[in-house]
Design a protein that fits this description.
The protein is an alpha+beta fold and 365 residues long. The chain has 10 helices and 15 strands. α2 packs antiparallel against α3, α3 runs antiparallel to α4 and α4 crosses α6. The longest helix has 32 residues.
Length: 365
């Protein structure tokens, strides 16, 4: 009886052990001597440190116990801005390079990581082209060479289209890998709601991985604040320190533009004169604006309001990208805006330049 019981205990222990996988992470980096090396695990939208060690002789080793092969990890180096990410799929990982040449650090790991490496290598070519074109555009702008500026702009636009085409093909080719959800999530701002849904519907992967969860959560948020949906209320402080709710303004004008911006955002400041012009022209006819700032410093926010002549209602919680209203409306880039009619229905999103004027004119003419 005791022998049978002991055998059962051993078998159960072996079964539990089989459900646990361990893998090693070897980090060999030049110019990192004496720096703290942190191993991070990405779960619930956060990279959490799970181990750390000081670099000695340019090498450190980590042993990791993991049950979910789709987990995303990263190595963060003390006083180095960019972490080094990887998927292990419970395979050993080797990271080799020089912290002073981040773009050439080599990560050898799982098949999933091979896909990421392949994508990153090709994608870097597009970014290099765009960076070079950006420099050339600045030179042409300084020389006021409009012909050259237009030529470079068109070239830039074509490279971006090529980049998007490559990304779409890569994701489609790898519908059965969770790497596709990782890449799509990191590029979600480049896609409309229907495009994101189409990709996700074609995925042939478990929805249990972290990036699929984040994608689905993001899609649900977009749906909730899509055109045709009722607005979401929020309350934040005015520059004077008073509380103002969106619901206090909805219905008091025929159109209300909720404008997400910040004093530190160059494109926002460039767009402000256009919004001011439309406001001045159509305010008496029923157009109003509520500015929601993603600022951190109140003095910068107030100065920008004064400098740009934003004579409408303004609010902020001074929490930068953690602004509660921007999170509710799934705002991931600024400038962004939501146009609400007098019934509280969202009727348009992200209208800029002449598009804003045309839409307001169309309704208030």
């Amino acid at each position: 009886m005791k022998i049978r019981l002991l055998t059962l205990v051993i078998a159960l222990f072996a079964l539990v052990s089989c459900n646990k996988s361990t893998f090693n992470v070897k980090v060999e980096l030049q110019n990192a001597e004496g720096k703290m090396i942190y191993l991070q695990k990405f779960v619930n939208k956060t990279s959490t440190i799970i181990d750390s060690v000081e670099m000695q002789n340019n090498i450190v080793n980590f042993t990791v116990e993991e049950e979910n092969p789709a987990t995303y990890y990263s190595i963060r180096i003390e006083k180095v801005r960019y972490p080094i990410g990887f998927f292990s799929e419970n395979n050993d990982v080797t990271i080799v390079g020089d912290i002073e040449d981040h773009s050439n650090i080599q990560v050898t790991a799982s098949y999933a990581q091979q896909l990421v490496n392949e994508y990153d290598k090709e994608n870097k070519k597009f970014y290099d082209q765009l960076r070079e074109l950006g420099k050339n555009y600045e030179i042409a702008a300084q020389a006021k060479d409009e012909a050259a500026m237009e030529k470079i702009y068109n070239e830039y636009d074509q490279v971006e289209k090529n980049q998007t085409s490559y990304r779409n093909l890569f994701i489609a080719k790898n519908y059965s890998s969770f790497v596709s959800s990782y890449i799509l999530y990191n590029n979600r701002l480049n896609y409309e709601l229907n495009e994101l849904e189409d990709f996700v519907n074609h995925f042939n992967i478990s929805q249990d991985n972290e990036f699929s969860k984040l994608l689905n959560e993001y899609i649900l948020k977009l749906k909730r604040v899509n055109v045709g949906e009722p607005y979401l209320d929020f309350t934040q402080e005015t520059p004077e320190g008073d509380l103002l709710s969106l619901s206090e303004l909805v219905g008091k004008s025929k159109l209300l533009l909720v404008d997400f911006w910040a004093s530190w955002c160059g494109p926002c400041r460039a767009e402000n004169p256009n919004v001011v012009a439309v406001y001045k022209e159509y305010h008496e006819k029923g157009f109003d604006v509520l500015g929601v700032s993603l600022d951190m410093k109140k003095e910068n926010w107030i100065k920008a309001i004064e400098d740009d002549g934003l004579i409408w209602h303004n609010v902020s919680d001074l929490k930068y990208w953690n602004n509660a209203a921007s999170k509710d409306y799934a705002i991931s880039s600024i400038p962004s805006n939501i146009l609400i009619d007098e019934n509280g229905t969202i009727i348009a999103k992200n209208l800029r330049g002449e598009d804003l004027r045309k839409k307001v004119e169309e309704i208030l003419k």
